[in-house]
Specification:
Blueprint (H helix, E strand, L loop, with lengths): L16 H16 L3 H8 L3 E10 L5 E12 L5 E8 L4 H17 L6 E7 L7 H14 L9 E5 L5 H15 L23 H17 L7 E5 L3 H12 L3 E6 L4 E3 L6 H11 L9 E3 L1 H4 L6 E4 L18 E3 L8 H10 L2 E3 L1 H4 L2 H15 L5 H26 L3 H20 L4
Parallel strand pairs: 3-4, 3-5, 6-7, 6-10, 10-11, 11-12
Antiparallel strand pairs: 1-2, 2-4, 7-8, 8-9
Helix pairs in contact: 1-3, 1-14, 3-14, 4-5, 6-7, 6-12, 6-13, 12-13, 13-14
Amino acid sequence: MSTTAPPTPAKDQELNPRLAAEARYSEAAERLGLDEGLKKLLRVPEQEITTYIPVVLDDGRLEIFVGYRVHHSTARGPGKGGIRYDPDVSLDEVRALASWMTWKCAVVNIPFGGAKGGIICEPTIMSKGELERMTRRYTANIFEFIGPELDVPAPDMNTNEQTMAWIMDTYSMHRRHTSTAVVTGKPLDLGGSRGRPEATGRGCMMVTNEALKRFGLRAEDTRVVIQGFGNVGGMAARLMVEAGYKVVSVVEWDAAVYNGNGLDIRKLLDYRQQTGSILDFPDAENIRREEALFQPCDVLLPAARENVITSKNARQLQCKILCEGANGPTTAAADDILSEMGIFVIPDILANAGGVTVSYFEWVQDRQGFFWNEGMVIDRLQEIMVAGFNDTLRYAEKYGVNNRIAAYMLAVDRVAFASSLRGIYA
C-alpha cells in the first residue's frame, strides 16, 4: 500500500504545515527516484514525545501545559531544532518544523538531523517565574531525549537565551556536571557563540547578495520589504541597510510603515523599543498591513510566521526575489504560482539556515572548549551559506525544477545517502 502524499495539499488543508512539508518531500523523492523503502523511512519521524507539564502559577493555582518534542531524523547527526512557546503550537506544526530542520541542516551540509519542540501556552501573560518553572519541568520531562550527542534544542518563537540557560542548568543538574553543549542560543557567559543573535538575518542577507548577482542588481539599487521585525526581520533589516540596501517598508503584526527613500532602521528599532509598536513612526507613513506585502519591490523578505503567502494572494506579489526568513511562509499550493510568475524564490530551508549554522558553530565551540571571534564566525557562515545557495541552484539547473524543489532534492539526497550507508538496524 502506497503512503505517498499528493503533490499538493487539498485546498481545505492548504494551511496544514505537515501536509505542506510532506508534499514537497514527496515531489523531491519522486524526482530523485528514491527507493520506496527509503521514501517511507524519511517521511515519518523517528519518535514523538507528548508530555504534560504541571506548573504552580504565581497565584497558587496548578495548571497543566502540553509540550512536544519530535525527532524527525538523526541519520546525519544529533537532532537539532528550536523550542517555541505559543497558544497555536500543535503536534502537526512541530512535526513539520522537525522535518524542515532535517532538510535545512542537510541543505547547508552541517552534521545535524532534525528535531523541534513546543509548549502550548500564552507566554505574554506568564511571569518570568512561571516561565522558568514550566521550562524546567518540560526539560526534566524530556531529559532522556535530549543531549549533546542526541538532540540539541535552541530558541524559537517566544523563547530566548534565558530559556536556553534554564534548560542547560536543569539538564546539567540532572547529569551532575555542567553540559553547555546540550542547547545552543545561550548567553555568551554560558557558552554562547558570538554572532548568534544576528545569524539568521545575516544568512538571509548573504543568500540575497548571491541572488542579486543573477539579476545584475547592486544592493544600493535594491528596494526591500520586510514582514516581521523581531530577531530575524529586525536583524536582517539592520544588516541590509548597513550593506547599502534600501528597506522601504516594514510590516508587523499591528502596523506597517513605508518610506520610499528607505527607512532609518536603527531609529525604527529604537522607536519600537520605546513605544512597543512601529505604528506612527515619525519618519515614515502608515500603510495598510493587508497591502504592504504586495508593494512593488526587488526583494520581499517574510520573517514572521507560516502561511503568509497562499494560493489566494500569491499572484498579488510584485517582487523579483522572495527570500524566506520565516519557516514555511509560503504554502505548497502557492509554489507553482510563484514559479509561473518567474519570482526567484530563496526557500526557507536555505534562506534562514544561518541560525542553525551558527548554532552548529556554538555546539562545536562548547565541545572544544575554544571560542571563536566574531570575524571567524561570519567568515565561516558566509562560506557555508554561499555553498548551500550554489548547490541548490546546481540541482535546479540539473533537474529543471524550481529552487524550492531543488533545495528539497539536495537535502533528501544527502539524508537518503547517509541512511543507506547506515542501513536499517533490526
